[in-house]
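Fill in residues.
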């Protein structure tokens, strides 16, 4: 495919961005995606600052292609993280949660391309006003932390596209070439895929979690904990405990106590499928194999090209 605003913005071959997922997105995954022609992202959300610096340095060794860092603006050591990003010469940062006005000027002043993740047209406009270069419009199908609006990707993309002038990257429920083409027909110029890359050889997730993702069937994921921060996860015993609390009229503090700390690490990184938080998107029901990143991207692009050329006779 030819260049568009997203491939030109990042200097990449294909408009495929790997989601910077916590506990999944280390340097091996990010560099593999970049080497295969997409844009790899390191997930800073599950890295202490010194660990992030180490992964950035290892990623530079593993690829000479562009890669970036995904930063949640709710991160506790934000100044330290941003300083490391600048010191290490990172040129692309994806921010999520929080207010993009707080850090976009700082990053732009250091020559960094900034992309912000949003879940509504209202926040898309706020991100554009803050001066970001592009936005990720993420629908309710997505795994992990989610928007409160419950707007699906195929509804969100054309609505956001109609409101903003900057490029839109579609996320949530996309794992195939056909899904990528559909999103682009609706106005996206690139796609961000998270769950598809969980089920890759290079993902830093525990093998038991990867295997659970490929076993997911339709209806096996759900968004919960809306009182704290909405999150889509795979139903398991931990989730059932949340349901039991809700059934007994639990308040916010009780939910927070039950969630505790380190649930996502326990589930995704340590492979505790019973008590851990297993974040994955609805599209996991279409993913049936754990493959090398290069093979995943090759399959997506092959399917995309075939779908582009197909003629529909109605």
């Amino acid at each position: 495919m030819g260049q568009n605003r997203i491939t030109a913005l990042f200097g990449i071959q294909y408009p495929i961005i790997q989601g910077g997922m916590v506990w999944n997105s280390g340097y091996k995954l990010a560099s593999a995606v970049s080497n295969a022609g997409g844009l790899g992202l390191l997930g800073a959300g599950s890295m202490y600052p010194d660990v992030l610096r180490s992964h950035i340095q290892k990623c530079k060794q593993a690829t000479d292609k562009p890669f970036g860092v995904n930063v949640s603006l709710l991160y506790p050591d934000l100044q330290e993280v941003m300083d490391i990003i600048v010191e290490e010469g990172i040129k692309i940062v994806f921010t999520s949660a929080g207010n993009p006005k707080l850090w976009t000027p700082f990053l732009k002043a250091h020559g960094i391309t900034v992309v912000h993740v949003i879940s509504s047209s209202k926040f898309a406009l706020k991100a554009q006003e803050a001066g970001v270069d592009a936005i990720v419009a993420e629908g309710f199908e997505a795994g992990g932390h989610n928007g409160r609006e419950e707007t699906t990707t195929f509804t969100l993309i054309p609505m956001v596209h109609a409101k903003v002038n900057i490029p839109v990257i579609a996320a949530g429920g996309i794992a195939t070439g056909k899904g990528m083409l559909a999103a682009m027909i609706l106005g996206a110029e690139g796609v961000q895929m998270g769950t598809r890359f969980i089920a890759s050889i290079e993902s830093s997730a525990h093998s038991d979690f990867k295997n659970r993702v490929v076993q997911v069937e339709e209806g096996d994921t759900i968004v919960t904990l809306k009182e704290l921060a909405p999150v889509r996860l795979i139903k398991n015993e931990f989730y059932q405990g949340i349901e039991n609390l809700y059934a007994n009229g639990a308040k916010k503090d009780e939910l927070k106590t039950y969630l505790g700390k380190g649930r996502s690490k326990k589930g995704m990184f340590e492979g505790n499928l019973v008590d851990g938080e297993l974040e994955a998107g609805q599209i996991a029901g279409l993913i049936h194999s754990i493959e090398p990143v290069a093979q995943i991207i090759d399959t997506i692009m092959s399917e995309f090209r075939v779908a582009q050329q197909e003629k529909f006779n109605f």
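The chain has a mean pLDDT of 95.
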